[in-house]
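In the laboratory, one determines a bound structure by crystallizing the protein with its ligand and collecting diffraction data. In a computational setting the workflow is compressed into a single prediction: the sequence and the ligand go in, and a structural description comes out. We illustrate the idea with magnesium ion.
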Amino acid sequence: MDEQVRVAVIPGDGIGTEVMEPTLGILEAVGRRHGIDFAWQHHDWSCEHYTRTGRMMPEDGLEQLAEADQILLGAVGYPGVPDHVSLWGLLIPIRRAFKQYINLRPVRLLPGIECPLRLKEGTEIDFLVVRENNEGEYSEVGGRMYRGTPDEFAVQESVFTRRGVERAARYALDLAASRRGSLASATKSNGIIHTMPFWDEVVHETAKDYPGVEVRDYHIDALSAQFVLDPGRFDVVVASNLFGDILTDLGAAIIGSIGIAPSGNLNPEGEHPSMFEPVHGSAPDIAGQGIANPLGQIWAASMMLDHMGHPQAAAELVSAMEATLTGGVRTPDLGGTASTTEVAEAVLQQVGSDD
Ligand code: NAI
Ligand code: MG
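The predicted complex, in structure-token form:
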């Protein structure tokens, strides 16, 4: 009998809705080949929902999501609703309630895509960024005082816990051990003198359990430069919430377009649903034109298959994306002329074309 998987689907705003719809059809096709039967649980939670109800999601939204096995998200955010409302009203509560403490973002230059960098001969871009996803710089600790006066000030505290840093480091070290045995740790312990030396210490203590992995610390500024100058040197990169956020937009840029880059918000123990989404946002500048690149969402769906324990299905989906790209079917962000639907159709055709 087919495996039943309940997936909560939150298309969100703007191009989020445009890239989600075809992705579900593609997942259904992959699922049919691998004995997976998807039951979609659709949620219209979005900035539009906020404008109507004053909330990004209903009060019992998290309880509804808890019944799902996995969550697929498009993107949220729209002009008129402040970005901190869309982020703190939906994304961040989901990441925290479900202990999705790892944000995994592959940075891989797919065949058929021209790299915007002038790479040294023989360079391959293929690495993983592990972003700590539950604490760090994105904290609610702090406040503002003396509003509107010349004495006004704002304080925001970063929160780094031993448990939080260690589990992110361990996840990254495990990955590195299973790949090329190299871990780059993003730090800034020269300027940020409490939290970042602590980060370094915990990463290196954890690494003692992994004699086969070479760990190198990079200050975040120098690391950003190396992403551009020598991206081929990286295998796995581990970073705090903010550093990882910034690095992965840069990572998405060097693989050709932010429209391709995927991410998984993982609860590695599988005690709670994990959430898969493209790195990009709702792109109000191109929303409604039918030209959004669906590959970021489709690649995120492949990460979901992998997390569900279907690596073969996941790999097939990535191969279908690669074949689509090398076949020249591309959206305008990659220099092509294809629409969202045409790219998605091409991927759908490729799924299963090997038999
Ligand atoms: P964005 O990622 O939406 O757009 C940045 C640029 O990349 C735009 O020029 C856009 O047209 C282009 N782009 C993005 N995705 C694309 C795709 N699939 N195909 C082709 N081109 C694509 O980032 P921006 O403009 O900073 O944010 C827009 C809204 O999205 C904001 O409200 C922001 O808060 C929200 N956002 C939401 C995220 C999420 O839901 N996880 C993540 C990032 C931003
Ligand atoms: Mg970001």
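The longest strand covers residues 3-12. Keep in mind that any predicted model is a hypothesis to be tested, not a measurement.
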